[in-house]
Amino acid sequence: MTGTPLFERMALIGIGLIGSSLAQVARQRGLVGEIAISTRSPETLRRAEELDLGDIYSLDAAVAVEGADLVILCVPVGANESVAKSIAPGLKKGAILTDVGSTKGSVMEQVSPHVPDGVHFIPGHPIAGTEESGPDAGFATLFDQRWCILTPPENVDSEALEKLSAFWRGCGSDVDKMDAKHHDLVLAIVSHLPHLIAYNIVGTADDLETVTKSEVIKYSASGFRDFTRLAASDPTMWRDVCLHNKDAILEMLSRFSEDLSAMQRAIRWGDGQTLFDLFTRTRSIRRSIIEAGQETDAPDFGRHAKD
Ligand SMILES: NC(=O)c1ccc[n+]([C@@H]2O[C@H](COP(=O)([O-])OP(=O)(O)OC[C@H]3O[C@@H](n4cnc5c(N)ncnc54)[C@H](O)[C@@H]3O)[C@@H](O)[C@H]2O)c1
Ligand SMILES: O=C(O)C(=O)C[C@]1(C(=O)O)C=C[C@@H](O)C=C1
């Protein structure tokens, strides 16, 4: 993008994988004029400065948001309420306040009460990430050909919504809008449960290690390896996701356990047809995703085809 930036000053609160990626893409593609960065720990802020991610740095989030027309909360979802409380006095009238949290219902509940009149709060969630965390993990192309879901409140200002959508499109994403509750249900099955299954299977294998000696490590070159990538994801982030999307995750977990029991029963009773039918159905799902234009190599698998 060339010409006038969409926003004069963007403030990023939290500068890990997502904050750092946003800083890099926004600067590279000229989406914002200046970038102000705040985060909780002095070491991380110093690292962001060494990486030259921004123009203004402050440990005080309320100072960082002063004069910003776009403020993005890039902290674990459990930290959003205290951050919202602390930045409220510094927010500029007319500014857009958004976030990137993996859950949306709880973020809306926690942040909305602290948003001053005249500030447009529009929650968001880029469906893009890796198992890495911290400012060094960020990269400018993270959001390319990924979805970004916005969950605007009913009374949203349409101009602010369009401006935020344009920002995410500038980051390379396609933008979808949906209700926060629906978002949380969908993400519980496509993102939260896969992570919980990975944490669980790797934990179980680790417990078995004492029984199987080094075999878990020795033979983990194939399917198990894919689980270890997800299970290496940030513990704080995923603890918060579980605590802040409790109902939807519990609902999906109970459905999942029922289906697992059905599979267990089929194996116990030698019901090969049931197993074969299920495996055939799931194989065709992956194939149809690939045919729809997605890449086959693991890091790019979630990228979708451009129209
Ligand atoms: N990692 C992913 O794959 C991914 C993808 C999409 C969305 N998200 C969401 O994005 C958000 C950030 O995730 P990330 O992967 O960038 O995490 P991260 O651990 O890499 O970075 C988090 C940042 O927040 C800071 N922080 C933590 N608590 C804070 C507080 N109370 N006040 C100020 N700063 C604080 C940390 O110092 C760090 O700079 C989370 O809400 C997560 O759910 C993550
Ligand atoms: O690719 C990964 O490593 C991710 O876990 C990214 C992923 C996902 O589940 O797709 C994880 C959490 C986010 O909220 C969004 C994206």
UniProtKB/TrEMBL annotation:
List the residue ranges forming a coiled coil, or say none. Answer: none
| NCBIfam families named among the record's database cross-references | PRK07502.1
Keyword Iron applies: no
Q: Which GO terms describe its molecular function?
A: NAD+ binding; prephenate dehydrogenase (NAD+) activity; prephenate dehydrogenase (NADP+) activity
- The UniProt record lists the Prephenate/arogenate dehydrogenase domain at 8-297
Amino-acid biosynthesis as a keyword of this entry, yes or no, is yes
Q: Which species?
A: Roseibium marinum
- Record keywords, A-Z: Amino-acid biosynthesis, Aromatic amino acid biosynthesis, NAD, Oxidoreductase, Tyrosine biosynthesis
Enzyme Commission number(s) of this protein: 1.3.1.12
Q: Which reaction does it catalyse?
A: prephenate + NAD(+) = 3-(4-hydroxyphenyl)pyruvate + CO2 + NADH
Pfam families assigned to the protein according to its UniProt record, in alphabetical order: PDH_C, PDH_N
Instruction: Identify the enzyme class.
Output: oxidoreductase
Q: What is this protein called?
A: prephenate dehydrogenase
Q: Where are the transmembrane segments?
A: none
Q: Which GO terms describe its biological process?
A: tyrosine biosynthetic process
Q: Please state which protein family the record places this protein in.
A: Belongs to the prephenate/arogenate dehydrogenase family.
Pathway the protein acts in: Amino-acid biosynthesis; L-tyrosine biosynthesis; (4-hydroxyphenyl)pyruvate from prephenate (NAD(+) route): step 1/1
